[in-house]
Amino acid sequence: MSKVGLIPYKIETVVKETKVVPPGIELIQAPSLWNQGITGEGVVIAVLDTGCDTSHFELKDQIISGYNFTTDDDSNPNIFEDYNGHGTHVCGTIAAAENGKGVIGVAPKVRLLVLKVLGGQGFGDTSWVTEGVQFAMNWRGENGERVRVISMSLGGKEKDLALHQAVQAAVKKDILVVCAAGNEGDGDDQTDEYAYPGAFPEVVQVGSVNNNREISKFSNTNCKIDLVAPGEDVLSTYLNGEFAVLSGTSMAAPHVSGAAALLIEKGEKEFERRLTEPEVYAQLIKRTVSLHYSRRFQGNGLIHLAKERFVEMEQSEARAAN
């Protein structure tokens, strides 16, 4: 049985209190959609990770349900607590509540389906991840809710066939699958680094940039990168009701998952119908801006939810330079 685990990441700092819109969320211009009343309401995102601090004041009301696939807590399926911190951090970037304290997520009214597929040490069997994807695909809420996005900030070196088939099946059911690219990058776009499920062609593979829009040296490069998002010095929720600053492509992927939720809400209000997975993907890519790196670094570019504003700024800077 193959193994999968957290993509190595770096804990920069842990703090007890804060009150800020995290820089990465500002960088992708999520507030530009909040100002239009778009907050991810009605969208369910399945987070496959180490679980979640279910009592964290930023997250406890965001969780719609959960399930434990690991051997933690004697394999009790109903206990999906996070004993690592990684899953809680990812959940916060996606969905931390708007409450005037702490932080706020990209999509603060999204609902989270917390699927614990990695144990407290950050490792698990690939079969747990496969079961998590299948569970997310078939899950239904009390009011008929369905998962619209699966977010995975984990990876392994092996192409597991069962996991790949599960991902393919989820995409066919119009679920957008968002995955971290991996942190084995060497800063050279001529060398390939792959982590799975991120490198499966059906998923949205997310690389990392810093808050100056520079590609992170650790970010994997390959021809299947779809786009990039903030992955350095990312402030989000952490264990024991605290907050932490972490770095890695693990932190970039949830920015895109949250952005997808915003675009689903926005698009379905405009079109007055459910969007397909290819349509959601197209809406994401439509809102990327080139950072003038090769596609093997940046894919289509940085997710930017106020693309017009970015283009105007670049044009203004170019005029000033001339």
From TrEMBL:
Homology family: Belongs to the peptidase S8 family.
The Peptidase S8/S53 domain, residue ranges: 40-301
PROSITE patterns: SUBTILASE, SUBTILASE_ASP, SUBTILASE_HIS, SUBTILASE_SER
Statement: the UniProt record of this protein carries the keyword Protease: yes
Protein name (Swiss-Prot/TrEMBL): Intracellular serine protease
Keyword line: Hydrolase, Protease, Serine protease
Alphabetized Pfam families for the sequence: Peptidase_S8
Enzyme class: hydrolase
A molecular function GO annotation: serine-type endopeptidase activity
Catalytic residues (positions): D49, H86, S250
InterPro entries in the cross-refs: Peptidase_S8/S53_dom (IPR000209), Peptidase_S8/S53_dom_sf (IPR036852), Peptidase_S8/S53_subtilisin (IPR051048), Peptidase_S8_Asp-AS (IPR023827), Peptidase_S8_His-AS (IPR022398), Peptidase_S8_Ser-AS (IPR023828), Peptidase_S8_subtilisin-rel (IPR015500), Subtilisin_Carlsberg-like (IPR034202)
Matching CDD domains: Peptidases_S8_Subtilisin_subset (cd07477)
GO terms for biological process, alphabetical: proteolysis
